[in-house]
Design a protein that fits this description.
89% helix, mainly alpha, 175 residues, 2 helices
């Protein structure tokens, strides 16, 4: 097959159709539709550019507001950093002063603690001596209590013997 042999083949229905020429009224109608489309496109273009102008203004106001907020945030950040820095300095100073006071108080209290420790040791020694003396006194008191109990028993025995003796002397006297 040669490329020169290739020809487009039209269907019979298309071939049998008569070609009509566009008349004057049809041409006027098509032209009117074209003008309406052109006018619509012009209006659409104007509306688009007008709307984009509004959007551009709105975008510009958003950009201005965002930049204002960024500036505000930056200024607040700087102020916060300065405040934080001064607070850190004050905190360091206060910590330093507290350490000085603790050291001074500790030195002063150390003397008192040592003094109180010595006094406590002396009190413990005195308590131990008193406790020993008290234990010896209690032992002596128990021993005396036992002696008193023995003496009371001897006294009771002597009373019974004496009463027996009185009874026996009375029985002699009556005899």
């Amino acid at each position: 097959m040669n490329s020169s042999d290739i020809k487009p083949v039209r269907s019979e229905a298309l071939d049998n159709r008569k070609r009509r020429n566009i008349g004057g009224s049809s041409l006027l109608f098509v032209s009117l539709l074209g003008l309406i489309n052109l006018g619509g496109l012009v209006l659409l273009g104007l509306w688009f550019f007008n709307a984009s102008g509004y959007q551009q203004e709105a975008g510009q106001s958003f950009v201005e507001r965002i930049s204002f907020l960024e500036e505000e945030i930056d200024s607040m950040k700087i102020a916060n950093e300065e405040t934080l820095g001064s607070l850190e300095e004050k905190t360091k100073f206060i910590d330093k002063e507290i350490r000085k006071l603790w050291d001074l108080s500790n030195k002063r209290n150390r003397k008192n603690i040592d003094s109180l420790t010595l006094q406590l040791k002396e009190v413990k020694e005195s308590f131990e001596e008193i406790s020993k003396a008290n234990n010896s006194i209690l032992a002596k008191q128990r021993a005396r209590g036992l002696e008193i109990a023995k003496l009371e028993k001897v006294q009771a025995d002597l009373k019974t013997n004496l009463s027996n003796l009185d009874n026996s002397t009375e029985s002699f006297d009556t005899n």
